[in-house]
Amino acid sequence: MLNKQLTILFLTLTLILALFYPTALAANLETGAKIFEAQCVGCHAGGGNIVRRGKTLQKKALQRNHVDTIETISALVSNGKNNMSAYKDRLTEGEIQAVSAYVLEQAEKNWKN
């Protein structure tokens, strides 16, 4: 319950910052990109998945697998699932939110910069 409340609070603050301080959102996405490069790119380069073909980070796959919101991506990053490791012991909640926002943004852009 507390985790869900913290996530909602973080997302609300992120939205407020994005509306009034667009550079804060850019910094969050930059942090997410750095975390992705350090922790995720080994399996998910370019939004792909070298372990399980159908579990990519492409928009259609995220939607099909019901992992297409920051909340659901954050839960997956935190807790892992099947072949994906959990990162809640390696990353802070803020880092998990940042990398989740980055993944969602990249999926929207079809993983093209």
Structural description of this entry:
23% of the residues are buried. The mean pLDDT is 86. The chain has helices spanning 2-20, 22-44, 59-64, 70-79, 93-108. The longest helix is centred in the first third of the chain and has 23 residues, at 22-44. With 113 residues, the protein is mainly α.
In short:
The chain has helices at residues 2-20, 22-44, 59-64, 70-79, 93-108. It is mostly helical and 113 residues long.
Walk me through the topology.
Elements: H1 2-20, H2 22-44, H3 59-64, H4 70-79, H5 93-108
Helix pairs in contact: 1-2, 2-5, 4-5
The largest pleated sheet is described as:
none
- Low-pLDDT parts are none
Q: Taking all residues together, what is the mean pLDDT? A: 86
| Structural class by helix and strand composition | mainly alpha
Shape: globular
Between the first and last Cα atoms, what is the distance in angstroms?
Answer: 36 Å
What percent of residues adopt helix (DSSP H or I)? 55-70%
User: How much of the residues is beta strand, in percent?
Assistant: under 5%
Order of helices and strands: HHHHH
Number of helices: 5
> How much is the radius of gyration in Å?
13 Å
Task: Kindly state the number of beta strands.
Answer: 0
